[in-house]
TrEMBL record:
GO cellular component: plasma membrane
Taxonomic lineage of the native organism: Bacteria, Bacillati, Bacillota, Bacilli, Bacillales
Protein name, per record: Chemotaxis protein
Positions of transmembrane segments: 6-28, 183-205
PANTHER family: LYSOZYME-LIKE PROTEIN-RELATED, METHYL-ACCEPTING CHEMOTAXIS PROTEIN MCPB
GO biological process: chemotaxis; signal transduction
Length: 565
């Protein structure tokens, strides 16, 4: 699977888990709030039951105080409770607001109906007090019949309190169970999230591990001491596998190019050596021709001045002409070989130039691949930043959960411990994401160094191309010089043939010796001038051959930096 697809899948999974964690935390907070509300309702219900019982006791106490002491204050308090405060009515309204079951309200109504007898007794006692019959009033309020009627009223109230407290307790238990279930779900989702996160980190590290081998191989090539025979192992079909395959293909092309350049360099070196040897032979022959021409010139001069010595001069001239013809033939053959070697060396230089261009193209392709790798690393670093942001949000949620647990008091201690563990896991996740970010920064730095190294290699290739162009121009000059030498040698051969014909004519007729000697003298001067030109050309060819040999040796030293066998 491609790394980009893996990263997209990881983002989707992590986003889904984050949404589920957010939903679970939301419902957890809602259940905790419901539990707190249930506790609050339980307290309110208990307080309402207590207030209801206290209101009944309050009326009884005020009525008994009034019949005991006869003070109007207690009577006023009694009727104020009955007519104005109406505690029982307010409690019933509050219970209805809290949506108490009808069965509990029926118990209160039953207590109210049972209180009619008690109210009648209290009314009779108050009338007795008004008529100053305190004994009868006290008997009515403190006898066993009043207590029995009081108990009849308290029984429904006590039943109401018992049923109400049981229901409120059940609501608290159910709310607590829901909160506990949601807490377990939230913890399970967080554990799954962190396990998934660490699995993603491990997968990223495993997937990016081959980049180190690719980087080391490129650095080895950039240092100009690379081994062109080794290849990277391609074990995946993702972007890293494509980079390794492209690098292997580039190494194959580079190996073939280096081998071809090496062979061409050796051939150029051999050709330059042979050219140097032929040039030295040509220089020797030219020196001999110059000497022979000098002798011919002297003989021709002597022949003009002294016809009596003509026979001897003719013989010497014939020998000189013969040597000239032989040297001219040898020189013609050497010039032909020189021209052929120059043509062949020129072809090799053009081939080397094409190979250097191919190397430059391959380096540019590799540079683009490494640049894309740096961009992918930047993308991965953004994803790691998003992961760190999610870890920080998780840490914030755990802090909020700790605060809510602290507010819950004793019931939130367990949740506080879980929130603390979640915060530790979030901090660990942030730390791991930071380490991955540092690793990606190091990879980007290595990629940058690799790009710089490949640029240096490209500069070396450009320099090598310039050297090849220089050698190509040198070979072209050698080729032109060799062609000029061949033309001059042909002219020299023609002159030699003319001199041989003249020697035969001199032998046939001594009378024409002076005329022929004059012509020979003129021809010798022309040949002497051509020989001087030829000598200069031979020296130039020798210098170019030495320069070509040095360039070939330099190219061979550059190629030997790479391991190709």
């Amino acid at each position: 699977m491609r790394i980009s697809m893996i990263l997209k899948l990881m983002c989707v999974i992590f986003l889904l888990l984050s949404v589920l964690n957010g939903i679970s935390v939301y419902f957890l907070q809602k259940d905790i709030k419901q539990e707190r509300l249930s506790l609050q309702r339980q307290v309110e219900f208990k307080q309402l039951g207590i207030d209801l019982a206290d209101a009944s006791d309050y009326l009884t106490n005020e009525a008994r105080r009034y019949v005991q002491f006869g003070e109007k204050e207690y009577l006023d308090n009694y009727w104020k409770e009955v007519n104005e405060t109406k505690t029982r009515d307010h409690i019933v309204m509050k219970l209805k607001e809290l949506k108490a079951p009808q069965a509990e309200l029926d118990l209160i109504e039953k207590a109210k109906q049972n209180s009619d007898v008690l109210v009648k007794t209290e009314d009779e006692a108050m009338k007795a007090v008004a008529s100053q019959d305190f004994d009868r009033a006290r008997k009515l309020m403190f006898d066993k019949n009043y207590d029995d009627n009081k108990k009849i009223i308290r029984d429904p109230i006590d039943a109401f309190q018992t049923k109400m407290n049981a229901r409120a307790e059940q609501e608290v238990i159910q709310a607590r169970q829901r909160a506990s279930s949601m807490l377990n779900l939230a913890v399970s989702l967080l554990i799954i999230t962190f396990l998934t996160f660490f699995a993603m980190l491990y997968l990223i590290i495993v997937r990016l591990k081959p980049l180190k081998m690719v980087n080391e191989k490129i650095k080895e090539l950039a240092s100009q001491s690379g081994d062109l025979t080794t290849r990277l192992s391609v074990t995946s079909k993702d972007e890293i596998g494509e980079i390794a395959s492209s690098l292997n293909a580039m190494l194959d092309s580079l190996l073939v190019m280096v081998l071809d350049i090496s062979q061409a360099s050796k051939h150029v070196f051999q050709s330059s050596e042979k050219l140097t040897y032929n040039t030295k032979e040509t220089a020797t022959a030219t020196v001999e021709i110059a000497r022979s021409i000098e002798g011919i010139q002297q003989g021709a001069t002597a022949s003009v001045q002294n016809t009596l010595d003509g026979a001897r001069s003719i013989e010497e001239m014939a020998k000189g002409v013969q040597r000239i013809a032989e040297s001219a033939n040898e020189l013609s053959e050497s010039a032909g070989d020189t021209e052929s070697e120059a043509v062949e060396g020129f072809g090799h230089m053009e081939q080397a130039q094409h190979q250097m261009h191919s190397i430059d193209d391959s380096l540019k392709s590799s540079l683009n691949i490494v640049t894309k790798l740096s961009e992918r690393s930047s993308h991965i670093e953004k994803i790691v930043g998003a992961i760190m942001e999610i870890a920080n949000q998780t840490n914030l949620l755990s802090l909020n959960a700790s605060i809510e647990a602290a507010r819950a008091g004793e019931h939130g201690k367990g949740f506080s411990v879980v929130a603390s563990e979640i915060r530790k896991l979030a901090e660990g996740s942030a730390s791991s994401a930071s380490e991955i970010s540092d690793l990606l920064k190091q990879i980007r730095n290595d990629s940058t160094e690799t790009v710089k190294a490949m640029q240096r290699v490209s500069e070396e290739v450009v320099l090598g191309n310039q050297k090849v162009l220089y050698a190509r121009d040198s070979f072209q000059k050698i080729l032109h010089s060799a062609k000029g030498i061949a033309v001059q040698i042909q002219e020299l051969s023609a002159v030699s043939e003319q001199m041989a014909a003249g020697s035969e004519e001199i032998s046939a007729s001594v009378a024409e010796m002076a005329h022929v000697s004059q012509q020979s003298l003129n021809g010798v001067k022309i040949v002497n001038d051509k020989t001087i030109i030829q000598t200069n050309l031979v020296k130039e060819v020798s210098s170019l051959s030495d320069s070509l040999s040095q360039e070939a040796e330099k190219m061979e030293r550059i190629i030997q930096k790479f391991k190709v066998m």
